[in-house]
Design a protein that fits this description.
alpha+beta, OB fold (Dihydrolipoamide Acetyltransferase, E2P), single chain, de novo design (two linked rop proteins), 5-stranded mixed barrel, 34% helix
Length: 252
């Protein structure tokens, strides 16, 4: 909803999460914000890098902020900002910082501008909150699974994606090309199939059927964690055809 005019520019309010920023000019900064109302937008915060800037304390990475934005020609302009939530552990803990960078980069690179999704906004917010509070890497796997679903790439993990037959636990294969699991008989269809554990399939099923609270009830060993990570990473690469550079830091 448009609120008023500032210097003949329409202004509006929206809550958003800052997922990227870069310096611009001598004192400005360009922000990439995933907003609740308008999806991903770019906005310029003028003078924010000056020592006495009133906006500076409200516009850090991963902050949840209530914005007043003025429509601009190339970028919207941050006319006002009020911090809502800052997730302090995301800056104090290196592993939490790396995880937050990863999901922010994934959101930035895989989503087009100005396509609104309340579900993705809630997913991003809840994941940052869970990383801040718990730091469990499994929350990243949950984010990836549900993010893929919201993008229209829900992984098939119930029956064979090719022939629809019920899967035999000891003979389950994953194919990113096909978009999910398949049986041994359909293996020749995809040249990039890998055999995966039934426990990995079960975890993805749990993700798809529950909210993020289910993560706290799942205990898995390192081998299973790695397989789940590899499967989802390969699927994301196949779909996006993009390199997510911060991914390598979350694998350390």
């Amino acid at each position: 909803m448009f609120l008023n005019k500032i210097n003949n520019m329409a202004t509006y309010k929206s809550q958003g999460i800052i997922i990227k920023r870069r310096n611009f000019g001598e004192a400005d900064r360009i922000l990439t914000i995933y907003t609740k109302r308008s999806g991903k937008i770019s906005a310029i915060a003028k003078g924010v890098r000056k020592p006495l800037s009133k906006l500076g304390g409200h516009l850090e990475l991963f902050y949840v902020t209530d914005f007043i934005l003025s429509e601009g020609r190339n970028f919207d302009i941050v006319a006002g900002a009020e911090l809502c939530e800052d997730f302090p552990k995301l800056r104090k803990n290196l592993h939490a910082t790396e995880q937050a960078f990863y999901i922010s980069e994934l959101t930035d690179k895989l989503l087009h501008d100005e396509i609104e999704s309340r579900k993705i906004y809630s997913l991003l917010y809840e994941t940052l909150k869970n990383i801040n509070n718990y730091g469990d890497m499994l929350f990243l796997r949950y984010f990836e699974t549900m993010f893929l679903q919201e993008l229209g790439h829900r992984p098939e993990v119930e029956n064979c994606v090719k022939c629809q037959e019920v899967l035999i636990p000891e003979k389950i294969y994953w194919s990113s090309e096909l978009g999910g699991v398949h049986c041994e008989n359909c293996k020749p269809v995809s040249h990039n199939s890998i055999k995966i554990r039934p426990e990995t399939v079960k975890i993805i099923r749990l993700f798809l059927a529950h909210d993020s609270g289910i993560v706290k009830n799942i205990n898995i060993n390192n081998d299973l964690q790695k397989e789940l990570d590899d499967v989802l990473e390969d699927f994301i690469k196949y779909i996006s055809e993009k390199e997510i550079y911060s991914k390598k830091y979350t694998k350390r």
